Amino acid sequence: MAAIQDFVEQALQQSTVDGCVVVASESTETNLRWANNSLTTNGQMTSRSVTVISVAGQSAGVVTRSVSTADELADLVKASEAAARDAAPADDFAPLVSPYEVSDDWDADPATTSVQVFERFAPELGAAFKQAGKNGRLLFGFAEHQMTSTFVGSSTGLRRRFDQPNGRLELNGKSDDYTRSAWAGVHTRDFSDVDLDAAVEQLNTRLDWAATSLELPAGRYETILPPGPVADLMIYAYWTGSARDAEEGRNVFAGPNGTTRIGEQLSPLPLTLRSNPAEPGLECAPFEIVTASEGGLQSVFDNGAPVSATSWIEDGVLANLIRARAWATKTGAEPRHFTTNLMLDGNGTASLDEMIASTERGLLLTCLWYIREVDPQTLLLTGLTRDGVYLVENGQVRGAVNNFRFNESPVDLLGRITEVGRTEHTLPREWNDYFTRTAMPAVRVPDFNMSTVSQAS
Amino acid sequence: MPDMDASFLALPARELADAALGRARELGAEHADFRLERIRTGVLQLRDAKLDSSSDSEDLGLAVRVVHDGAWGFASDIARTPEAARQLAEQAVATAKVSRVLSDDPVTLAPEPTYPDATWVSSYDVDPFDIPEADRVARLADLSERLMSADGVDHVDALLMHVLENKFYADTAGTTTTQQRVRLHPQFTAVHVDRGAGKFYSMRTIAAPAGRGWEYLTGTGWDFDTEIAELPELLAEHVKAPSVEAGSYDLVIHPSNLWLTIHESIGHATELDRALGYEAAYAGTSFARYELLNKLKYGSGVMNVVGDRTVEHGLATVGYDDEGVQTQQFDIVRDGTLVGYQLNRQMAQAKGFGRSNGCAFGDSPGHIPLQRMANVSLQAASDGPSTDELISGVQRGIYVVGDRSWSIDMQRYNFQFTGQRFYKIENGKLAGQLKDVAYQATTTDFWGSLEAVGGPDTYVLGGAFNCGKGQPGQVAAVSHGCPATLFRGVNVLNTVAEGGR
């Protein structure tokens, strides 16, 4: 097959309409999945997709195909142009992004991954299965490594390229009667930093904690949320942060009389929620990559636009909402692009262990699961605790308690957090299919709403 | 029956399959299967009747899966040459060797007759891709504008997703299938904004996604014109409705809401891979443990549930599954007792079911087939009551219409659902809308409180495009049919009180 960069150039050359952007990506992936101390499935996948965005007047034709020949590419360009000519003017129309100085290595081969990325990890996993079996414990989980090279070329002359590695390990340990369960998750760029022994050790500690089983009723509890659950809640608030929706009065960030809540103190603590494509260890594309417009959040017309560091919340105050270029022009504001990493910091220094030690009586969570929106007005979310809820008394873990269904709004929670631990890289549990690059602190909430009891263990 | 898409038939499926399966045989695979798949997805989104997003995406690739020395191996790629197909077979065998070292039980597959050269096309009239985009947008814009022009409607979101799925399958036993499915999901949401108070309210259409074609938007299978005409008044009533008092209520539930409760509390709970722990780290397990088969009292005696991959217009309906198994209808709950699970060939063999019931599905050429959900449906009573008759039997209750928020735990015990609209029932009659309602229960308590199922006239097929499962994550479309139903004494929460401090 032709080099993917050649496809981008050929498609641009063949374009006959007012403007054209080509987004081409080549992706390789390798994964291992296991259950009950045994590998269940594994695989290696290679995929390539080419999206041609043709612009005719203020209309766009957006067509994506898994192109593998020059003829298919020519058909794709024609299909995209036909769609553009046929389309109504786009609500998110903006002039295509002009070229600017970049240092991307456009010509280098696409980056790839292969099963070799697990060369050290796979035998360690095999040893962990054997050890778990001896200890009456079962391991379940998933390890995945992906590498995606994306090339954005525009008829304006702009060329941008980014290689995104993305790896994750999810490890779930259970007692062999399935009554105790614990979980650990890691985001990684290349698996070289994955410490499986440490993850297994963490599971074993937690499964030992669960030797004592306690029952607690539904109610409001002082609760320590570790970094992972905080990430899951903050990601939902972030996804909801469309400036357009807020200015139209239709999301949690809308204020009265056509205002937004930008400028409102959401938390009395000095919390900063931010994104930054250059965040060490959590690097993501420093320019927009969009293969379909997404109402109010991302626009195909913004492809290639530089994405810079943005604070969404600063010192507890809502500072920015996500704003595509067309809406920014309409509202006389700067664009704020959706970015695929998210960090929360509150100047905390306490480790999770220190936060446990300073707890008189409270719950320690492991994960939140099946998080769904109940009321968009307040961004009330529901979901479950999962894989370990522990009762802490006088600084010590007393045992594992039953799971709960919670009903809470992440925006409301920001105002009720009383303590913030130190920020660390963490893997969100609920959303890690879509969003893996986060750094969050553990937080203490004095009155987390455990609405009902779940019998799940 | 519509014709099979000519451009898919023009792909060299058999040549590629022969290359891949031949190479897998040479390398000693006990079983190998090959898929060539093309999935084309169109999405149109309108915001306030203006085009906000349009995309047309196609995924095309090949996949080879083998059982080699008792272990699974899988590989997929987009290159469509015999040489690439042979290499995929080699890669799949290589991954099987990695698996072998780390896995215990050798894989064997339940027997299935072979189906040489079978073809199957779903039941629809017009592939939406055959309608020019301008015409598709015009229909959505027209319906959006009708909503926009109504009093109390400030914003309108319209969404149309439609899919044309072509799949060629071949295996070393001699089955070869070529199949084509079309499905679509139109959805309209009307939003009311009270700018002074900084509050907003919305209501969306309850039309279900369906295994139908463009005709669904023009009067076949659903009447969008009528639903759109009625929506503004329903929204206005919702805005003014009193907030519910939390407590225990009898619920009459319309199929447009109950399909999702069935999906979560029965559909997923009766997937055997979950019951056996294969999904324990991700989607979860099931309270309906394998040893409870034929023993578990799932619900009341009027509860009868089937899995069905053959029902016309069902989103999970297909002729043959992704392991070459001819699809079927099968019992899951009979007279309130758990009597069956959804299976694939490996589990059917391992647990002695004899034959798979055809529930293997891979959502794309890049993904390995998993056990995925059949259309799992609650059966109507042949002489069952009408919805009005069900309501007339309730003194203090709520009538629930349309799905909205959903969540259930990882063993399928505790769930909580909201809806599009809720009506107070007083002394057997509807007494206006309520708002801020969520109903919450434990699965077996809830189905145990099922007092009556409605008659066939109340039966509607609901469903979703976006059922998620597996790692790497896969998405599947599935339908769930049910009649109107009456449940006694269900816990109702007030969602505003839940969010309060």
Describe the fold and architecture.
- The complex is a heterodimer of chains A (457) and B (501).
- Chain A has 457 residues and is α+β, with helices and mostly antiparallel strands.
- Chain A contains nine helices and 20 strands.
- Chain A is globular.
- The model of chain A has no long low-confidence stretch (mean pLDDT 96).
- With 501 residues, chain B is α+β, with helices and mostly antiparallel strands.
- In chain B, strands 1, 2, 3, 4, 5, 6 and 7 form a seven-stranded mixed β-sheet that branches.
- In chain B, α4 (133-148) runs parallel beside α5 (224-240).
- Chain B is globular.
- Chains A and B meet through β1, β2, β3, α2 and α3 of A and β1, β2, β3, α3 and α4 of B.
Q: Decide which structural class fits the backbone of chain A.
A: alpha+beta
Number of helices of chain A: 9
Average of the residue pLDDT scores of chain A: 96
Q: How is the biggest beta sheet of chain B arranged?
A: 7 strands, mixed
Placed side by side, the strands forming the largest sheet of chain A appear as 3-2-1-4-5-6
Portion of residues in helices of chain A? 10-25%
Topology of chain A as a string of helices (H) and strands (E): HEEEHHEEEHEEHHEEEHEHEEEEHEEEE
Largest sheet of chain A: 6 strands, antiparallel
Count of beta strands of chain A:
20
**Oligomer class:** heterodimer
The radius of gyration of chain A is 24 Å
- Looking at the structure, what is the overall shape of chain B? globular
Low-confidence runs of at least 5 consecutive residues of chain B? none
Overall average pLDDT of chain B: 97
Gyration radius of chain B, in Å:
24 Å
Short description:
The complex is a heterodimer of chains A (457) and B (501). With 457 residues, chain A is α+β, with helices and mostly antiparallel strands.
